[in-house]
Amino acid sequence: MGMFASHHLESRLFRRARSNWSGAAPQQTPRRGPGPARIRLSVEQLEARRVSGFLAGLNYDIPGFNPNVVAVGDFNGDGTPDLAVGSVFGNGLTVLLGNGDGTFRFGPGNALGDILALAVGDFNGDGLADLAVMRDDGVAVLLGNGDGSFQAARTVTATVGSVLVADLTGDGIEDLVVTDLNYDTVSVLLGRGDGSFQPAHTIGAALWYESVVVGDFNGDGLPDLAGAGQGSQRLGVLLGKCGRLVPAPADL
Question: Measured between alpha carbons, how far is 105 from 198 in angstroms, rounded to an integer?
């Protein structure tokens, strides 16, 4: 094989090697007519894979006792994620402001009593992160001041369970979905866009939901809900319909 033919064959193999590498041994194709047998190189592209890892963790001592819930939001408007931490006993709400390098500094605290759940939203449309806080006496809304602090808590319902923020009617205003563990119900509080909410409207009864998520499960462009809890072996689904939620044909 001359120099030109050898270089031509190496170039062809190299081009194939860059696009398709399997590590398999070269295979010889059947000879057709006179001349040397052709060699087919089966190549498969190698994929670089890395196992995700983390650096050593940092611990922060939260005032009070038993911090049990945490939510992420930009509470001081600097574009860096911050943390809101709720405690069952003790100080209530603690805000940790992000420094942008993975560390946090303590922001203003709020003595709100026992906190069972937290959800972040913008309930008055001012572009600042607000909080919906599930306490042992119901759901309270705290409007953000934009500096890591919040206005005084305003109770919007006495329901005790879990709380979820979602725009259920498609009007661009965030609403609240609240579960009631005392009466096994799911209720919706439609937002008015000024930080207040309409009275709670029950959309599901006899539902022991401790956790609720929102999504479009049937592809109609309307938000749906799925809930699960300890009192049943079922996963309940509520489908959105014309701005309201109705039970799915059957729970799973």
Answer: 36
